[in-house]
Amino acid sequence: MQHKKLTDYPRPSVAVDVAVLTIRDDVLQVLVVEHRLGGLALPGTFLREKEVLAGAAARALREKAGLSDVAFTQLHVFDALDRDERGWVLSVGHSAALAANRIPADALLIPIVDGAPAERLLFDHNGIARLAVEALQSHYGRILDPANLAGDVITVRQLRRVYEAVYGRALMKDTFRRIVTPHLTSTGETGNDFGRPAELFRKTAGSVLPPSAWATFSAGRPSL
Amino acid sequence: MQHKKLTDYPRPSVAVDVAVLTIRDDVLQVLVVEHRLGGLALPGTFLREKEVLAGAAARALREKAGLSDVAFTQLHVFDALDRDERGWVLSVGHSAALAANRIPADALLIPIVDGAPAERLLFDHNGIARLAVEALQSHYGRILDPANLAGDVITVRQLRRVYEAVYGRALMKDTFRRIVTPHLTSTGETGNDFGRPAELFRKTAGSVLPPSAWATFSAGRPSL
DNA sequence: CAAATAGTGTCTTTTAGACAGTATCGC
DNA sequence: GCGATACTGTCTAAAAGACACTATTTG
Q1: I want to staple B144 with a disulfide (CB 3.0 to 4.6 A). Which of A22, A155, A212, B207 is the partner?
Q2: How far is CA B97 from CA B7, B41, B137, in A?
């Protein structure tokens, strides 16, 4: 073969960074770690020999944040030549979402305000976190609580609070209930935060919401 | 610093592949090229020293398909270890959309059927093309003909045909007109294909469609 | 004239949005 | 009882879907 061999091509280092989103105090938050260069950053690592991106992402979360068994979505490759002063590094941004009870108590969480982290992170990690929030909103608009942020047995109110945190805006009580109830099955039990006890439901696994649901949740914001 | 240097990490080859979509004969099509390994593939190339992904994508289109001045969107990284038998290669899939008159006459086009190419492509390129179609649909649901597939001066019918090609389904005449007309300005002229001449319009640049528009266009298909 | 398409009007159905009213708890 | 929340029902307004009717061209 008269073509170059693969090894003749220059090859960049490839990093993986993961924006782990969760809900604490009814607010969407992103998990960050102290970076050895000083400052806050998303947990990340370099890709190892013949390692798959999802593997590297899982390893980064295990080593840097003490998390395991996390599901990811790949978001975007950040490839600015000057994004890392140490050299030519591509970073593949990932997104994950976990219920608060799966996050270690000592983890650093930065609140999401207006779709972006409230603090400055290193590198282009603010951008990765923003994309992660958009991806989460998009996912939640199509499937009912796909990351199970609300938990298994819930009231409609609890579920709505999760959606309000994800979309960063108040949702209407009645409309939300109408959208959601067809995908819930009552357990017969009732639970209670305050006031009249609410019916407890279990979500129908992987419920697909109508296309209008996303429009309703993100109304007033034609962007994304 | 007691850490490894960047060059100590193993590094994969990085390829870039681009799914160029266009509309020919009222059907969405994807541009492919003959691959030297035999078979059809998306135009692609390997990333060069300190080259940016968009640069490599532009170069691939120029060298392999004779296209220039094309706007891309990055889609996804394909990282299966066995996706290229020549070695460890990550491929960053990209998407672009161009009006038919910007595509060379001798280009190979494969029709898109049910959101995927009608023929088998090499590697995981069918998957890249599928993602490209989804991205195009999503983009067209938010902005009015953002890739200008319809052309500058158009009738409502021509614009609808473009949308029907993008979504692969018939759209309703009246509803489509209602969604679209607020974002069109009449040129005063009329043109005609057949029958009564239609009013010619110019699109308001970068018109943002209401969130419900996407729901309407993709009705009946809650997936994506 | 017929055939074909453009454009307008309107009716129905659906549904988001809003609100009122009743129910059931803790205190 | 009071405060708070859960649920149900209903009204309105807006928008999608559907259809009819008129208008204007080609052949």
Answers
A1: B207
A2: 37, 17, 11
User: DSSP 3-state assignment of B72?
Assistant: coil
Residues 164-183 of B with CB under 7 A from strand D: 172-175, 178-179
Q: Report the alpha-carbon distance of residue A121 to residue A111 in Å, rounded.
A: 12
Q: Tokens 């608060």 map to which residue? A: A100
Burial of B29 (0-12, 13-18, 19+ CB in 10 A): buried
3-class secondary-structure state, position A42: coil
Minimal Cα–Cα distance from A110 to chain B, Å? 27
Rounded distance between C-alpha atoms, residue B110 and residue B120, angstroms: 10
> What 8-state DSSP symbol labels residue B160?
H
Question: How distant is the alpha carbon of residue A168 from its chain centre?
Answer: 14
Strand partners, A176: none
The residues, any chain, with a CB within 8 Å of residue B38's CB and separated by 6 or more, are none
Sequential DSSP letters for A172-192: -HHHHHHHHGGGEEEEEEEE-
The Cα–Cα gap between B148 and B71 comes to 11
pTM higher than the cut 0.85: yes
The CA–C1' separation of A131 and D2, in angstroms, is: 47
pLDDT in tens, chain A (224 residues): 445 666 667 889 999 999 999 999 999 999 999 998 899 999 999 999 989 999 999 999 999 999 999 999 999 999 999 999 889 999 999 999 999 999 999 999 999 999 999 999 999 999 999 999 999 999 999 999 999 999 999 999 999 999 999 999 999 999 999 999 999 999 999 987 788 999 999 999 989 999 999 999 998 544 33
Amino acid at A24: R
